[in-house]
Each structure stands twice: as structure tokens, then as C-alpha cells.
Amino acid sequence: MIAKLIIFFLCSSGISISVLVAANVINNRFGYSIKKGALLTALWLGLVCFLLNYYSLTLDGIPVICSKVILLMYIAVSCDIRTLAIFAPLYIVSVAVSPFSLIIGVMSMAFCIIIPAICKNKLLAVFAVVYSIMPLSLSEVLAYKYIPAYDSKQLWAIGIGIQLFLTLQGVVLWVLRNTVFVSLLTEYAMHITGKLYGIYCFEVNDKNNTVVVSKAMADRFEFPDVKMSCDEFRKILNNATDSKVEAFNENNKNSFFVTPVTYAVHYIKYSCMRGINKKHIGYISDITGMVPRYEMLYRSAQKDFQTGLLTYKNLTSYLLNISKENKGKVLCVTVIPVLNITGHSEYNEEFELQCDKILIDILKTFDNSELFYVSKGQYIFVVNNIYNQSTFDEISYEIKLLAGDTYLVGDTTVKFETKLGFFSENANAINSFEDSKEVLEKLMFCIMRQKCSAGGNIYSFSSCEYKDYLDCLLRIRYLPIIFKEEKLRIVFQPIISLTSGKAEMCEVLVRADHEAYRNTRTLVNDCIREGLDVELDKIVYKKLRKCLESGIIPALNYSVNINGNTPVGEDAIETAKILKNAGYNLYLEMVEHMRVPENILKDRMLKARQNDIKLAADDYGQNTSTLETLYKTDFDILKIPMDFIVDIDSSKKKRMFVSNILHYCKESGIKCVAEGVERAGELYTLMDLGVDYVQGYYFSKPQDIVPETGKIFFNASSSKAN
Fold first, then answer.
1. How far is Cα of residue 628 from the mean position of the Cα atoms in its chain?
2. How far apart are CA 568 and CA 602, in angstroms?
3. In which element (H, E) is residue 203 found?
4. What gap in Å lies between CA 557 and CA 579, rounded to an integer?
5. pLDDT one-digit tens code per residue, 150-159
6. Which residue has the higher pLDDT, 300 or 11?
7. pLDDT at 695
8. Tens-digit pLDDT profile for residues 279-288
9. 363-371 mean pLDDT
10. What does pTM read for this prediction?
């Protein structure tokens, strides 16, 4: 009896595991297509359930108990809502055509849907599903006598024993939930179940020149989106892998993969093979757990073949080693050789390499030092065993002199103007790989700042700048999903006429419904940095157009920002037509912190005038390009930024500046708007100066609704009298 039961459960488990592996392969194979993956996975599992319920596929012709439990457990914990929605009716149908009880089948399926929805912890959900389904399956077998070969009393005893064991196990785990034993057990179980989820699939469409990856793969390896061009995909692989992985011509290539944002290190197996219909099918398998951790983190990369230097990937292990031997400071310097070649008649790569070699050889003469190769013309120099500040200052000063000296290269005298970035750390603060990795990341930040810096050859690491940089890296990861799901909304701030005291215009502003972008200026700056400013403008105009067409907001004069390279698109033109038919105008506020290329400026002016769109100069006076753009463009409105309005009532200089702007506007027939009015004193001063319009928190913050037409924000006549 016992032997038969053991054989029964082993056979059932074997079938279940095979089915689950196949389901996982299907789900990953079509993971880049969420709908297709869910559909095919659910169809496969539904077919298996039908076969298990309808045919005699297991020992002694008995439909599986254990297989049903494991299968339903997998469905409950692993599959998303789409798969569950497709699988549930298939499962019910398979039970309906079988000799099993439909009521018990419905109850089992209900447990699989409800329990995971309640239990956010996956392990707890697995336990609860097994605990719930096991007695249903046993009672079903016993009630309908599907196991005549076995004694019912013994089966009842085994079933009750299993439930008692599960109950006891649950009580013990709950009592010991805060102990290291349960913590390790949980971790171990998660590692075991995680083996099924380490394969990520993608599809390459050669015809459309696109690559589509699964959402899980995009999240795991920090791809910017699930869909990209082939060139973008190649670039990501080239930058992220430590060996040259050919995107579409490799089979089973092992490589390290460093994620682009958080620099997480994975060891992967990469494969991409030609499919049918001009497509490639590939996968990335995360096999990090299959290689020794120390080998992955501290392996010796090959030296640069031209300079003979160790690559920067060795820096982490080097810092860890030296930190064990000294307790002083470690001076890290980023070195970017720059040559003054004025008057040189000949210059080539070989000559540049010779110059770099001279500087490398000089730096190698420092005691307790090591030089690392980053890329062509970029190096990291590390000096350790610095025990006092005077020695630290002397070494730093000497490096600055050597990096800016004049040297003889062959028969030519060359002046070095090397860019240096300085960063220091206490050796005893580097105790782990993470500490060492953080030093390297700070040095890479120094290199980035040095490359971007226009003035000054010496850069000292700034903690504040580095924090802002990291914050930016974390923020921009959310931009694709913000734009994909359009988690953006428009708000309205009234622009008040100082003649009538009414809102004769509204500025349309954008807000992100995401905690990463509570500050709108940060959102706009990040969009500009990531090349999404044009897309941002398009969404704003589309939303404004829809609001007007649906009647959510009334027709009024509306002004909307338009960033540097954004063309006057269809939504802007249609919005202008709607407002024109109602007797109002659309104003484009040209953002003056960006220099607009002349061809785009001319095209924008032409399309604006052709479609009755008026132009406004935003943030006048904050950028040198403003005067040039102001001269070339026939603006209808000029907006004076808040910087010149704050405390204007107590600043003679600001009053003179604004007065001159107003004089120019009146002579040119341009209306003038003062932004950022927050106090009554500022308002009265602007009225005295003769400003046409004002806006600011004194009247209203940006709101989701447009103020009522005709609303009086202040009594202009009584204010003037006062």
C-alpha cells in the first residue's frame, strides 16, 4: 500500500514538473507579446487539465491528485490575470466532461484565484493553495471511489495526516518567523523557484528593423522599453557585455552583463537564432548562480593591448586588496590627456598614442600606485598609503604639474592640458565589494563631468552633484512608462488683465502623475536631456485639443509652451481652429532657455501665421539667445520671468529693467505679461509701470479647471485709486 502510494506520488510529480517546465518555456518564448504569451500558456495548461481529467494517464488509470495540486499551485502563484482569465473556463470545462465533481473543481479554481489576490507573499500563497486544494482532491477521490485499489480508511488517514503536518508546519513557521532559520528557509525556497524564471525571450523582426523583448527582460536588464530598433539593441548589448556579443548571429554565448542604470552584474547565456518569416528568436538566460561569485566579481580582465594597462574592471578588486593593508587615504584621479597642438602641421592617432604613453610612463613612477585603462584617452590613477594631509597635498600638486607640463614627443614639443578629476577615500571605509564599486562609480561620474565641462581642467568630486546625478538616473527610468501610459495631465493658470481685472487668457501647464516627478521643471529638464521634449509637447497639445472638443474646458485664449525642436503639429493646428471659430486664439510660448535652430524657427513662424496661431516669447531676458530670437521673430506677447518681478516694489534696478522692456513692447505693438506675481506690492508696482497682464500665485495656482469666464480676480479701478 505505502509503496504504491509513493510510486503514485512520484509519477504524478514527474508529470507535473514536465508540464510546468513546458508552460514556462511557452510563457518565456512569447514573453515579448503579453497577450500571446498568456493565451498560449493558458491553452497549454487547459489542454493538460483536460487530458488529466478525461483520460487514464497515470498509475492504475487514476487521474492525478498530486499533478492537479501542483498544476493549480503553479497557475495561482505564477500566472498573471490574463492567463488566469483564459485558463479558468478551460479548467471548468475539462472538469465538466470528466467523472470528477464540477462543484469541487469550481471550488479548487476559486481558491487559486482568490488566495494569491489576498496573499502578496508568494510562499504564503503556495502554502495556502496547497492547504486548501489537498483536502478537496482527497475527498473527491474518496467520495467518488476513484481509487478502488486502496483502502479508504488508509487514504483518509494519509489525507488527515498531510493536513495535520501542513498545519503544524504553518504554526512552527509562524512562531519562528523572525528567526534566521525561517529566513534561510524562505531564501532557499525562493532560489529554487527562481530557477524557472531566469529565461527571458525576445523577437527580432528583420523586415521592420525592430526588436521586441519581454517585459520581464526589460525590467531585469534595464532595457529602456520593450520595443526598440535593431541598432539600439546592438548598442545596449555592446555596452553592457564584457565580450563582443553579436546580436543576431550567435548561439550560446556566455558573457557578463552590466545593467546600464544601476550597474548590477549578471552572468548570462545569450542565444539568437534565425526563425521563419525574416525573424530571429533569441533568449537571455541569467545563469549568475551557476558561476562562483568571486569569479564573476573579481576575475582578471584582459589588459588593454596598446597601453598594457589593466582595465578599470580590475579596480574594484584592487581597492579591496589595498584597503586590507593600509589605513590611510586613497587618492583616485581621472586622467583625460588633452594636447595643445596649435601650430602643429601633422597630427594622427599614432602621435596621440605616443603622447598618452609619455604621461602613462610618468604616472607609473609614483610609489604605491596603479594606473587603469578606461577607454581611449581616459585613465584612472590610484595612489594609496597616504597617511597625512601634507603628503596628500604634495602628490595632488605634483600630478597637476606633470599633467600640464610640456614634453618632447619625437621631434615635436607638445604642451599638455590634461583634464583631471580628483576623488579621495579613506582606505578603512572600503570593506566590501559594494564599497569598492561605489568608488568606481564616483570616478566614472568624474570622467563624465570632465568630458562635459567646458572650462577648467581640474574637477574635484562633489557629493551634491553626484547625488543629483544618481537621482536623475533613478528618475529617468520611469519616463518610458509615464509616456507609454500617458501619466501626464494638463493644468491651467489664469493670466489677468490689469485693465479689467479678469482672466483673459490661461497658460496650459503639464503635470506628471508620478511620485518621481513632483517638480514640473525637473520633468521638463529630464525630457529635454532624454530627447523626449518633442513627445511631451505633442501630448500636451493632444490633451488640450481633446478637452476643447469634449467641452471639458471652455473656449478661451490659451498659451502653451513649445520646446526647442517641436514642430507646429496637427493637434496644435486643430486646437487653433477650434479657438479661432469661438473668437479666441492659441499662443505658442517659445521657451527661451533653449536655442532654436534657424530652420525650425522659420518653419514654426510660417506654420503659426498660416494657421492663425500667435507667438509669445517666454522667460525674456534669461538667455543670450533671447535677443537674437526676439529680433528674428514677430512676437505678439512677451513674458517677463519671475526673477525680475520678485520684490520689484523694493528694487530700483528691477523697475528700470522692466520699464525698458515695456517701452520696447509699446513701440513694437507687443503685449507684455509679468509672471510670478505673489504679493500686492508687486502688483501695484507693475500697474504703475503699465504692464498689460500678470499671472502668479497672488491670483491663482495652476488648477485642473479653467476659471469661470468673467470672474473678477481683483478690482482694477479701486486698486489704481489706492
1. 37
2. 11
3. strand 199-205
4. 7
5. 455 665 666 6
6. 11
7. 93
8. 788 888 887 7
9. 89
10. 0.52
161-196 b/e (C-beta count within 10 Å ≥ 16 → b) = eeeeebeeeeeebeeeeeeeeeeeeeeeeeeeeeeb
- What mean pLDDT do residues 41-47 have? 75
Taking a C-beta distance cutoff of 8 angstroms, is the pair 92, 105 a contact?
yes
Cell numbers linked to 536: 511631451
310 beta partners: 372
Helix axes 433-452, 315-323, angle to 10 degrees: 130
Alpha helices in 416-518 (DSSP H): 433-452, 463-476, 479-484
* Residue 340: strand pairing partners: 415
- Do residues 180 and 171 make contact, with C-beta atoms less than 8 angstroms apart? no
Q: Does pLDDT of 96 surpass 80?
A: no
In sequence order, which residues have a C-beta less than 8 Å from that of residue 265 and are 6 or more positions away? 256, 257, 258, 288, 296, 297
In the sheet with 406-409, reading across from the earlier edge strand, the strands are: 339-340, 412-416, 406-409
- Dist CA 545 CA 565 (whole Å): 21
pLDDT of 720 over the 80 cut: no
Q: Count the residues in the chain.
A: 722
Rounded Cα distance between 284 and 272, Å, is 9
Question: Alpha-carbon distance 539 to 536, whole Å?
Answer: 5
And the C-alpha cell for 157? 488517514
Distance CA 331, CA 508 (A): 51
**Identity of the residue numbered 456:** G
Is the predicted pLDDT of residue 274 greater than 70, yes or no? yes
To the nearest 10 degrees (0 to 180), the angle between helices 122-143 and 152-175 is 170
Return the beta strands (E) in 669-717 as ranges: 671-674, 693-694
Q: Which of 519, 501, 502, 500 is nearest to 510 (CA)?
A: 519
Residue 179 cell numbers, joined: 528567526
- Reference 25, options 198, 244, 263; nearest CA is 198
pLDDT digits (tens, 9 = 90+) for 573-614: 999 999 999 999 999 887 654 556 666 677 777 888 888 889
Q: What is the pLDDT of residues 24-42, one digit of tens each?
A: 666 655 555 556 666 777 7
How far apart are the C-alpha atoms of 672 and 636, rounded to whole Å? Answer: 9
Beta bridge partners of 674: 640, 694
